[in-house]
Amino acid sequence: MLKHLIFAALLAVPGAAMAQAPNDAQIAHIAYTAGAIDVAAAQQAATKATNPEIKAFAAEMERDHKAVNVQAMALVKKLNVTPQDNPTSQALSKAAAAKLADLGKLNGAAYDRAYVENEVAYHKTVNGAMEITLIPGAKNAELKALLQTGLKLFQSHQAHAEHLAMTLAK
The whole model's pTM is what? Predict the structure, then answer.
């Protein structure tokens, strides 16, 4: 369900959620929000996960998404652009808060599986939205390049999460 909500929110950007395609300030806000959401999920996993591999994965997610968000903030500062809140960012935040609350009710192996399954779904969704909407919509070459670099990293996160999910399923 969360996967579908996030995907709909991300892909709706050029459609009903906004009167026009997102501008670079909105794209920057969406991308930053998506990263911050994964940081929050990783921080929760750091305290709730029981499997050492899941804890290590969560630490990687927190480190990498924080680093990309730091780069994003440095870029918008350099470009003198203020990230612009928008309905997509708001929908992402709302859906993520609900998912974190649901995950927070789980413990042990059930938490570990649910966290990893969510990471797989989340990265698939965000990566797809980056490819379909955010990267093609970015007008600034430096923003586009940062999004493309982030996408490569996030695709590796997705592969790692998929590997962990298969391992936990055994």
Answer: 0.89
* Any domain includes 65: yes
Task: Examine residue 53 and state whether it is found in any structural domain, yes or no.
Answer: yes
Total tally of structural domains belonging to the chain? 1
Q: Are 83 and 25 within 8 A, CB to CB?
A: yes
Average pLDDT per consecutive 10 residues, the chain (170 residues; last block may be shorter): 46 45 95 97 98 98 97 95 95 96 97 98 96 96 96 98 95
76-109: b (≥16 Cβ within 10 Å) or e: beeeebebeebebbebbbebbeebeeebeeeeee
Contact 143, 24 (CB under 8 A): yes
The two three-digit tokens of residue 130, written as one number:
């980056």
CA separation for the pair 61, 43 (Å, rounded): 9
Query: Which structural domain range is residue 115 located in?
Result: 2-10+21-169
In a domain, 68, yes or no: yes
Which CATH number goes with the domain that contains 132?
Answer: 1.20.1260.10
Quote the tokens at residue 124.
């698939």
